[in-house]
Design brief:
- It is a single chain.
- The protein is mainly alpha-helical.
- It has one domain.
- It is built from five helices and no strands.
- The longest helix is centred in the last third of the chain and has 36 residues.
Length: about 140
């Protein structure tokens, strides 16, 4: 049941990703405003660049979280978890996604590591939201 719970929690990363994508697209649209002949304050350009950087970082963590969500769901349903764990570790190693073919970590430890990825994803989104809010609140005063 713990693996199902972790898979479900990791699956919530998709919702975070959608919101981050919206903020990133908003930053891109705002950053492209000069192409329409609109003047963009230099501070706004910097804030758009920061939002884009955070959006890319968020996308990286979102991809990792989505992969873990699917793997945890698959292994939670597996009747041969030990064999499938070894096969997963070997496949990750064969694809150069892991340094060693053998991984002595148990599933609670792996679960904590996967949830740490979700926290990183959430942190990127939180920073994006704070930066967006700060931009909306300060740009009217900066011209």
């Amino acid at each position: 049941m713990n693996l199902y719970l972790v898979a479900t929690l990791l699956g919530r990363g998709r919702q975070l990703e959608r919101l981050s994508d919206a903020l990133t697209l908003l930053a891109i649209a705002y950053g492209l405003a000069p192409l329409l002949g609109l003047h963009l304050h230099p501070l706004a350009s910097v804030l758009c660049i920061l939002l884009l950087i955070l959006g890319v970082a968020h996308k990286y963590w979102a991809i990792r979280v989505a992969l873990d969500a699917e793997l945890f769901a698959r292994l939670a349903a597996s009747p041969q978890r030990a064999d499938d764990t070894r096969a997963l570790d070997r496949a990750l190693f064969d694809l150069n996604l892991k340094a060693k073919a053998d991984d002595p970590r148990d599933w609670p430890t792996r679960s904590q590591a996967a949830l740490a990825l979700l926290r990183r994803q959430s942190l990127c989104l939180g920073l994006q939201l704070l930066l967006t809010l700060a931009t909306l609140l300060t740009l009217p005063f900066t011209g």
